[in-house]
């Protein structure tokens, strides 16, 4: 077994239990929040703790939260939330961008105006080894993204920095990908070039695709398939998401499937109150209440569900 860093301390990988591999506590633009948002810190924290405790009571023990630079990571707030729930919260380091790097990295680093070593890699290594800021909380995995725009210079730079940090520490990686353009295959190529073990990589948002050829290519290269946007029916309906997992299990790929919603306690990308109306299934309860029963009804065994929810996330860290 392996020690896994959580917000409240180290947990043995064998004790992670049922794990959703891609959920967010908060997705916030902190600069926007400070300047333009009405915000009651205590109320927001209490509401997030309540939502996550409800998830724990539904049988989920752990969430992996890939909220990194670009998505508003603020660990002191997550620590407050964690104190109000028995759920394990595992946090990440990395950068979330579809195009360029943040301006903090724009002028320093390889092939930039002032040159020098890659500062992002050093920051990722610090988060993994020493802790994030002065919180005492260490990141347990890495996050990057490659969207429909593809491998822009900025995206490639972040991905290679993530890859270098993973290769040096063996920390696993989650990649936000765009299934329609098969960007997961590009991510695998770049990460492998940096020395990353593709068996320690989740190709996030693979569940937006029903293309079994694409999905099997990703899995055959060793990576986990992030079937991790349950509830975002506007991108792919519920039935198709479920049927894709059923077929993957039928073909023997249960050991390469992980699952989640990509939901959050609060996301400020949309007007508050819109999501429950527009995408009513996009919440932390959907997998426990709807998805798992549907998988069982379609013949997915309890053993395969245990593999997806428990064994695969544990192996991701081991």
From TrEMBL:
Keywords: Hydrolase, Metal-binding. PROSITE patterns: PHOSPHOTRIESTERASE_1, PHOSPHOTRIESTERASE_2. It comes from the Bacteria. Pfam families: PTE (PF02126). The modification N6-carboxylysine is found at residue 143. InterPro entries: AryldialkylPase_Zn-BS, Metal_Hydrolase, Phosphotriesterase. Belongs to the metallo-dependent hydrolases superfamily. Phosphotriesterase family. This is Phosphotriesterase. It comes from Dermacoccus abyssi.
